[in-house]
Amino acid sequence: MFFLLSGNAMPGDPGDIPKVLLVEDDPTLSRLYVAYLERADVTPYHAATVAEARSLLTAIRPSVVLLDLLLPDGHGFEVLQALREAELDAPVIVCTSGGSISSAVESMRAGAYDFLVKPFSAERLHVTLANALEIRRLKRIERTLTSDSKPDGFESFIGVSPAMQVVYRIIRDAAASKAAIFVTGESGTGKELAAEAIHRRSPRARGPLVAMNCSAMPRDLVESELFGHVKGAFTGALAARDGLAARADGGTMFLDEIGEMDLPLQAKLLRFIQTGTYQPVGSDTPRTVDVRFVCATNRDPLDEIRAGRFREDLYYRLNVVPITMPALRERGTDIILIARHYLNQFAAEEGKRFDGFDPEAERLLMAYPWPGNVRQLLNVVRNVVVLSPSGVATAAMLPEVVRAAVPMPSFAATAGEPAAAPQRVRPMAAIEREAIELALGEAGGNVGRAAALLEIDASTIYRKKREWAKGA
Ligand SMILES: Nc1ncnc2c1ncn2[C@@H]1O[C@H](COP(=O)(O)OP(=O)(O)OP(=O)(O)O)[C@@H](O)[C@H]1O
Ligand SMILES: [Mg+2]
């Protein structure tokens, strides 16, 4: 007697006995195979037609399907199709007669897991069945470990708000194709995270994800960075070098801050996107690669086109699938989910332990308009963790700018009644702190950039932060 180990049960349904659906129209064979199945530690079900199989599939949600291909009312492939439509993960073992190996091969291509050539012994069936159940078990574990089943988000995103569900759905739907994706959204909304999610969800996931920030590089270097160059192409080009285009072959290319690429290069990029073909700087020989494009900008592309800074034809080439990242203030309680997540993560990094935020702190986090979006929220949380002892994170630990939670002008304008008149004269130190924190918010927490905005020295900001930390 041969028993399948109960290790095939899934975590969460301990001791679950696997259900095996046999789809076979020959009554004699059906009886025999059901007898085989009864000797294994599984519950057998039987369907004699495609129609019966269809209705049983959804009713019992089998663990494994044993499938004969030639059925009175159709072909076994229709059952494979039905499984896919019902989003069932049951591996399918195709049972075929000696003469139809080719259709077995075909059904493997159509998604079957394995095949058995009739006639087969009970033992042969049991081994194949045990393997199929093991595969299913491993796949399920893999799925619980990957972020798809993450209860509070998708891939690296945290958030369950309707605004983010829209983003997740577009990424899910568009990932499989090669269509170019254009991600827009305010600074710090997760545009780069979106590019990563698209890549990971795509059939190119095992290929490279190559990112290029079009604004971070001096103009004349961008072209060689992108397309590479031949030896001697320009002064200092001592050796030939592959560009990012070559490195992205078979994968995804993320063009960040696309609006900031200069116009002549935009023309070359357009050609590259249309044909997959480019020429390294200094070379006449075109090269061809297979690349999927995702690009992002935090500017309004249509404004950029009107201003003559962004080629319209390039925009339409890239804007096949648009994704608009919602501002953090449009995501409701996602703000709290994200804040709590990073509170724990940063605390772990700092060797501290925080037990969430108190209600007043959460109220303030919800009320603040987050002009620097998720990146700014991360900086605020990081600040709390670094500057405060372990325990519950309180409202007093939040930066002044969040505590004041002054709605942004665009919000005040929509808020029907006039806002309460602000206190006109306040201590200089409070005004100074507010200005610095506002600038830090705008700069996504980057002290250098905040200092530039305020036209002061970065060391001033560092010094002030130390003073506040002592005072808090
Ligand atoms: N929904 C989210 N959940 C968790 N972390 C997030 C989320 N969105 C963004 N982040 C984090 O916030 C930071 C900013 O995200 P990202 O760099 O993708 O933004 P961006 O839109 O590209 O910003 P920018 O326009 O300034 O380049 C990153 O550290 C990212 O991991
Ligand atoms: Mg970015």
Seen as an oligomer or otherwise, the chain set is single chain
Give the number of helices: 20
Percentage of residues in strands: 5-15%
Cα distance spanning the termini: 72 Å
Tell the overall outline.
globular
CA radius of gyration is: 30 Å
Number of strands: 18
Q: Name the poorly predicted regions.
A: 1-15, 407-422
Quote the average pLDDT. 86
What ligands does this structure carry?
Answer: adenosine-5'-triphosphate, magnesium ion
Fraction in helix: 40-55%
Largest sheet: 5 strands, parallel
Question: Can you list the strand order of the major beta sheet?
Answer: 2-1-3-6-7
Any overview of this molecule?
This protein has 472 residues and is of the alpha/beta class. The strands form six sheets. Strands 2-1-3-6-7 form a five-stranded parallel sheet, with helices on both faces. Strand 6, helix 4 and strand 7 form a beta-alpha-beta unit. Helix 13 packs across helix 15 and helix 19 packs across helix 20. The longest helix is centred in the first third of the chain and has 24 residues. The N and C termini lie far apart (72 Å). The N terminus is likely disordered. The site of adenosine-5'-triphosphate (ATP) has 17 residues, from strand 9, helix 7 and helix 15. Adenosine-5'-triphosphate binds next to strand 9, helix 7 and helix 15.
